[in-house]
Amino acid sequence: MSQNSSSNTYATQKEICRCGDLAFIRILKTPQNPGREFYGCTKGNKEDGSCGYFRWVDDDTPFIGEEKFNLLHILHKAEESLREVRSLFLEAEASRDWFKDQMKEA
Length: 106
Ligand SMILES: [Zn+2]
Description:
Bound molecules: zinc ion
Structural class: alpha+beta
Order of helices and strands: EEEEH
Strand content: 15-25%
Largest sheet: 4 strands, antiparallel
Number of helices: 1
Distance between the termini: 89 Å
Number of strands: 4
Radius of gyration: 25 Å
Helix content: 25-40%
């Protein structure tokens, strides 16, 4: 009997591996854990650049991934920078308008 291993892999929307990508659910076929599902890196094997992410699907321990936390932190920082850029832009606009007025009066 031949089996297509790719049919045992499907994308998930809730788990993020250390690469920052969505993790895939894979089904284990070892004698110890036959048919048990786990989250794994999309890139598959270490040779393909995988981060080696691994977590059981049925392990319902509350989990806030360190990676997810880092991503939120980066997002927060990006929002801060965006605000800074916006205020710099408004300042630049204001001084441009001021300069225009000066030119009109000259
Ligand atoms: Zn990964």
